[in-house]
Design a protein that fits this description.
Helix content is about 45%, strand content about 20%. The chain is built from 17 helices and 16 strands. Bound molecules: iron/sulfur cluster (2 copies).
């Protein structure tokens, strides 16, 4: 990367010597953060990704698959429907694998691209920017919002504040509905909530998540990232010298200082200008014009020029703001940019030498393999065989031995299925009663069966017996072994 701006450097040969200069201070930062809205390439990407995330969040529950809500955590039935697949509580290991895989993928991306998750995909960031957008539309830009904060209460201020909180509340209520729509049928939920027809618990949970959204995105905002999010605390462990994260090029930017746009910068007039500002100034300026825009657009209110900070969520707003300033002054872009420590110091960036990168990548691949194996090995039939606890066996009048069992058979699909029951393990076993069964979707059938055997064909007092339930017109089947008892 070229680090020197041509315009600036040619006119300022003394800059090469990096003579210290008194840096004009940044504007004092208010304790309250009002984010200045920023346009730019990274903001387009962020807005696009946030919009996609929000759209998916609200629309996914409305997708139907085989006449049922495609994604639904049905807490009443204790089932999770995901398109054609139904997960039961005993299948939830797969959700654990999914979460572990997502964590490794997040670590893997963090090693390479820093906290892009936080800046571009985290719901906290997405909803905060929605709330800031609403605030800007109603109360005006950053300066107007600061002015409104300071202004005494008036009719206009009250109207703006009421309108803002009303819209924030509406967004929060919709978000609460959006979240609960993953747990109860979505189509009825919105109608029930807005017509006050929802049950007590559904209403309570919707309002609970609505209040959480309102407080998080409206009031707490960056405080969640700074004080509540554990990822912010440990993400630096994953960084190495090749991690690309938002960084200020201090070697190029310092010494920072204001100047007039398009002003020819040479050591003579810079020295003169600075001497007016400070008697200790004795050197030339770097590319940072100290416009403070990078601080004003920052959603966490930090000054990235102070170095890498855990508060930075890598949203790129300061990159766009600084590039805008660089363009105005005719300087090279990326004084603040997504770059690595190695790139800044001119070293090579062999990411394949990063053991963390390779390690997290392998771990993520392994976990993906586990998920595929788990899905592949899952059966849509569940069979449990329970022996009759009342008696080990019964001897019948026609000199045969009888054992009784209860078959607990679960149809884990979302369609009615037909099954056939078999017994095996001895040529003398005979199943008494109906062997063909019909089971409704998601239903568990407790089916009592009796097996008869001829004593001469049995090997001893305890014999192995295998029950098999096979789906008709399909290859799916499940088996379980049990014991068949006979007199010694
Ligand atoms: S936006 Fe760029 S030029 Fe302006 S203060 Fe920040 S680093 Fe300096
Ligand atoms: S310093 Fe602030 S604006 Fe810049 S990337 Fe980090 S969080 Fe975003």
């Amino acid at each position: 990367m070229q680090k020197k701006n041509v315009n600036n450097t040619i006119d300022n040969p003394a800059r090469e010597q990096r003579i210290p200069v008194t840096v004009l201070s940044s504007k004092p930062q208010s304790s309250k953060i009002h984010i200045r809205q920023q346009k730019g390439d990274f903001q387009k990407i962020r807005t696009g990704m946030n919009s996609l995330l929000v759209a998916l969040f609200f629309l996914l529950p409305f997708i139907s698959y085989e006449e049922r809500q495609a994604i639904l955590f049905d807490l009443n039935q204790q089932q999770f429907f995901f398109f054609g697949t139904t997960l039961w509580p005993q299948d939830f290991t797969i959700l654990a694998w999914v979460f572990i895989t997502a964590a490794f993928l997040l670590f893997f991306i963090t090693v390479f691209w820093g906290r892009v998750w936080c800046g571009y995909l985290c719901p906290q960031t997405a909803w905060t920017f929605i709330y800031v957008w609403v605030e800007t539309r109603i109360e005006g830009n950053r300066n107007k919002r600061f002015a409104l904060d300071k202004a005494p209460w008036s009719g206009d201020k009250l109207k703006k504040r009421l309108l803002k909180h009303y819209v924030w509340g509406a967004v929060a209520l919709l978000t609460g509905c959006g979240f609960i729509a993953y747990f109860v049928p979505a189509r009825e939920l919105y109608i029930d909530i807005f017509s006050f027809g929802a049950s007590f618990w559904v209403t309570t949970w919707v309002w609970f998540f609505a209040i959480c959204t309102y407080l998080n995105a409206g009031w707490m905002r960056e405080q969640m990232c700074l004080h509540c999010c554990p990822y912010a605390r440990f993400q630096s462990v994953m960084f190495d010298s090749n991690t690309k994260t938002v960084t200020y090029d201090a070697a190029r930017g310092e010494n920072r200082g204001p100047r007039k746009r398009n002003q020819a910068l040479n050591s003579a007039n810079l020295l003169a200008a600075n001497l007016e500002a400070s008697s200790t100034v004795n050197a030339i300026l770097g590319d940072c014009v100290d416009c403070n825009l990078c601080v004003e657009v920052c959603p966490t209110g930090i000054d990235i020029r102070n170095g890498l900070q855990y508060e930075c969520i890598d949203c790129g707003a300061c990159v766009d703001a600084c590039n805008q300033t660089m363009d105005k002054f005719g300087y090279q872009r990326n004084l603040i940019g997504y770059t690595s420590e190695n790139a800044l110091s001119g070293k090579a960036e062999p990411f394949y030498e990063s053991y963390k990168f390779i390690g997290y990548g392998i771990a993520a691949l392994l976990m993906l393999t586990v998920i595929v194996a788990d899905i592949y090995s899952r059966s849509n039939i569940e069979l449990n065989v329970i022996r009759d606890r009342q008696s080990l066996y019964r001897e019948t009048n026609d000199a045969t031995i009888e054992n009784s069992y209860t078959l607990k058979i679960r149809n884990k699909t979302q369609q009615t299925r037909f099954y056939r029951v078999y017994v095996s393990g001895n040529s003398g076993y005979r199943l008494v009663g109906q062997a063909n069964l019909k089971i409704e979707p998601g239903e568990q059938l407790d089916y009592p069966v009796t097996v008869i055997a001829t004593p001469e064909l049995l090997a001893g007092a305890r014999n192995e017996i295998t029950f098999t339930i096979a789906e008709q017109h399909n290859y799916a089947q499940a088996s379980q072994e049990s014991s068949f008892f006979a007199p010694i």
